[in-house]
Amino acid sequence: MPFSTRVRRIASPKTALTGAAVAAATTGMVLAAGPAQAASPTVATSASAKATAQKMIHNDAQFKAFSKIVEHESGWNAAATNSSSGAYGLVQALPGSKMASAGADWKTNPKTQIKWGLDYMNSRYGSPTAAWSFWQANGWY
After folding, report:
1. Co-location of 97 and 65 in the same domain
2. Structural domain count, the chain
3. Domain co-membership, 67 together with 134
4. Which residue would you say has higher pLDDT here, 96 or 45?
5. DSSP letter string over the chain?
């Protein structure tokens, strides 16, 4: 068999695979080489994290203060990581692993992060409103 025929035979599956990859990409599918791996748990959206906090914090003033801190610290992103300090999560715990005291799912569960953050604010400052006052005076809490 001539060399050019062998090259075409080798190239044809590659061309087909490239075409499939382009088609998959345009429909939102992902093609990956290698064995399949379980997807990591997804972190809740900022809206659902905020709704969870509102259910957990019954006092409106305390919720508003907690929300302001979280908005400034992480933008309600439960996976937010500070690249310079390593602080993690909604309330930017440093190190993030501190939140394990509230639950083993601290990396992915906003409810666990909220629980830890509320406990921290209450024990260190007395309340989320007091923590917010400190944050306003210092730019951190």
Report:
1. yes
2. 2
3. yes
4. 96
5. --HHHHHHHHHHHHHHHHHHHHHHHHTT-----SS--PPPPPPPPHHHHHHHHHHH--SHHHHHHHHHHHHHHHTT-TT-B-TTT--BTTTTBSSGGGGGGG-TTTTT-HHHHHHHHHHHHHHHTSSHHHHHHHHHHHS--
On whether both 6 and 75 belong to a single domain, the answer is no
Half-sphere exposure (CA, 13 Å, Cβ side) for 92? 19
Q: What is the pTM of this model?
A: 0.69
pLDDT band of 1, cuts 50, 70, 90: low
Structural domain harbouring 20: 1-37
How many residues comprise the chain? 141
